[in-house]
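Work package 3, deliverable 3.1, input record:
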Amino acid sequence: MILEAALLFVRPGCEAEFEVAFRQASPYIAMTPGYLGHELQKCMETGAKYLLLVRWETLESHAIGFRDSPRYQNWKQLLHHFYDPFPTIEHFESVRLGS
Amino acid sequence: MILEAALLFVRPGCEAEFEVAFRQASPYIAMTPGYLGHELQKCMETGAKYLLLVRWETLESHAIGFRDSPRYQNWKQLLHHFYDPFPTIEHFESVRLGS
């Protein structure tokens, strides 16, 4: 399993509108093969800052399955104009903590 | 529920040693009242970069229950010398995505 993470800086004052748009956009990512779940987290210390976490089966589920799909165009159209600056997206692998 | 998140930059070359220390440190955070779970995620694009995610019942579980406890001293002693720079820790609240 892969974790996609991105800090999202939304234009100040647009938080409520962004959250509505994010709800509308969510099905476009959720319908992707290899999608396992996602969450949007709002920062308590800094206004208009969010953390997006998406769980994928593989890196390719995100990088190809979603990014190269027509669904990504809908996602982009609904959300990208809220970001300033445009976010850096990174991928993470879980470090095993159990024995 | 509160999500604590921190990007951790570990001194290059110390990743394996850091992961061992993190496993040793994990019980100290996990024993805190209000602790719900944690995960350590290693960045796939940038070496020696990690994302720490900790779920807490409340902000106080972390800020007071853990930070003011003797367990935090053990955590600190095991882990803080690996970080360069010292991480910024932030707290997040989940944005409701369902209808």
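The helical segments of chain B are 15-30, 59-66, 70-79.
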